[in-house]
Amino acid sequence: MAKKTTVEKEYTVEDKLSTLYQLQTMVTEIDKIKTVRGELPLEVQDLEDEIAGLETRLSNYQAEIKENEMAVIAQRNRIADSTALIEKYKNQLDNVRNNREFDNLSKEIEFQGLEIEFSEKKIREFGEAITNKKTEIAHLTENLEGRKADLAQKRGELEEIISETKQEEEKLREKAKKLEASIEPRLLAAFKRIRKGARNGLAIVYIQRDACGGCFNKIPPQKQMDIKLRKKVIVCEYCGRIMIDPELAGVI
Fold first, then answer.
1. Angle at 17 between CA 227 and CA 223, to 5 degrees
2. DSSP state of 203
3. How many CB atoms neighbour CB 47 within 10 A?
4. Are strands 242-244 and 204-206 parallel, antiparallel or unpaired?
């Protein structure tokens, strides 16, 4: 039984250049779709990051208020303890046996009084801190709600644009993917490298008025002839783009 052999198609330079130009046409259309979206994706991302930062700050403020409230409770407990001790020491004054005991109890009462004054001062400080944080939270919450409204609007605009262009973009990407599969890896890698470095995303261009269609530098007649012959891949010596003749590009 004869073995089946798979005969792979041999692609000419003309075939390769034609396929590359078709690919360029498709990715250029995808670029145009991205341009329609403009800066919206970046604006949405920036707003999401800003909101996340505001929410973190809000959470920190709320935690600080709770800490201050707990500190106020602790100081009030200290006041209660000091008040109880003062009452205790005052009762003991009635039963002192000598001046030394009287002086010691008096000092303890004075000390506890100072403790109460200190705690009351700390309570006022914590209270002011709580009031200030609540004011900051009010401003922050207002700002946060505004940014969330902006985000909802931007997301709506982006989703509307994406929904309008999604189907077209998916079709173009699918076609581009199939074309890429038919291009030899080294040539495809070169195409992507040139495209990435090109300001307008054009990696392959056709001759326009005896000049490169990418950088518009003049091309010598002999090189133009070589390009028209389509026997080898020729790049612009100025910008590095691959060049083809207008006829192959289908413009004449």
1. 10
2. S
3. 18
4. parallel
- Asked if residues 40 and 154 have their Cβ atoms less than 8 Å apart, the reply is yes
Q: Where are the domains of the chain?
A: 37-182, 184-252
Burial 162-191 (b: 16+ CB within 10 A, else e): eeebeeeeeebeeebeebbeebeeebbebb
Backbone φ/ψ region at 9: left (φ over 0), alpha (ψ -120 to 50), beta: beta
Under CATH, which architecture does the 37-182 domain have?
Orthogonal Bundle (1.10)
The Cα–Cα gap between 252 and 250 comes to 6
H helices within the chain, ranges in order?
13-37, 40-93, 99-181, 185-197, 221-229, 246-249
CA angle 127, 128, 131 (to 5 degrees): 90
d(CA 191, CA 193) in angstroms, rounded, equals 5
pLDDT digits (tens, 9 = 90+) for 12-68: 999 999 999 999 999 999 998 888 888 889 999 999 999 999 999 999 999 999 999
